[in-house]
Sequence to fold (419 residues):
Amino acid sequence: MKQPNLKESLLKNATKWLVLCLAVGLLSGLASALFLVSLNWVSTFRDNHLFIVWLMPLGGLMVGLLYHYFGKEVVKGNNLILEEYENPKQKIPFKMVPLVLIGTLLTHLFGGSAGREGTAVQMGSAIADQFPSLFQLTKAERRTLLIIGISAGFASVFGTPIAGAVFAIEIVFFSKVSYRSIVPSFFTALVAYYTVEFLQIQHTHYTIPIIPSVSLVNFGWILLVGILFGLTAMAFSKTTHFFGNLFTKYIAFPPLRPMIGGIVLAIAFYCIGTTKFLGLGIPTLVEAFHTSSGNYDFLLKLLFTAFTLGAGFKGGEVTPLFFIGATLGSTLSGFVPLPIALLAGMGFVAVFSGATHTPIACTIMGMELFGLDCGIYIGLACLVAYFCSGSVGIYSSQIVNGPKQHLYKKLFQNDFENL
Fold:
């Protein structure tokens, strides 16, 4: 009698998670598809009507007012998701979906330097978190649901399903992760990815045509550039937090923060006389794989993005991190004897690895985007950047532990927390 009951219970549980993964993957994929199409439209409109950049203070005020009066519960964005995963308190409101979508589109419409992963991850997680009460899920099962929401958003917006699944697990790895989350995370990422593919939404493609053989000399160069990528990731994280704290400290009324930030950004963009740092910056990012970037492109993108997000504009950090890493790698090709595309690709994912403490997901992402042949270069760069990026990341609510923290404790003892 017990055996049939066990089979029935397993079948019921498998069916439940199959339905949940399909629902979250499909809905998140549709949300990402809508977002990507809309983002492309507003970016094209901005590029064809550059006068709109002067209206960035108005755009900032609109974003600020939107979140101040309608989105106080979800203003933390990705950090709210990580906090709910670690210490569940209440359901993530569904209004996070339209708020972050509108807020990000406004940011990009007026030229704010921001990304898109935060938007997709927040939409995926908010969609997923509407199901626990419907399916009467336990706290442990809700954590799995948040993981598949993250994986669905990440996989669908970047077109990297395996990296999306691993990223969702790795970002919360030092919390209470159940290994039962692995299969749902991969399955949901694939559903979300193929939903976007079915709708024929195009992702940006990158190529690394020349992969040199690994040698002791090349290993030394990987170590060097990996350290530089890690330090750059640390600089980005600390700068973003610095501007966020600065605006919070000196401007009491939240809607005024992005408005004042918009004034500064509009003037700054006018003074530098180029549009390459507006929005995602994809053209410059792609060009970095073929032509050596300007010596300060990575630094200016770092400052503009940190200021944009610190001021309260919405979007993500990851695509700007791609830009920063790729242009830094491209610039380093001036004295590092490695192919320019390989250096750009290494920086592309290694800076991201350091800023999010996710070297495994970033290595996989690099191989998904650039091919398996560059895997050893990508993997080593991500690992070195991870160890050299300090204990502060772009997500302040992320729990960071593991070998890096143990190493810091041994090297710096009581000072490691200040890295």
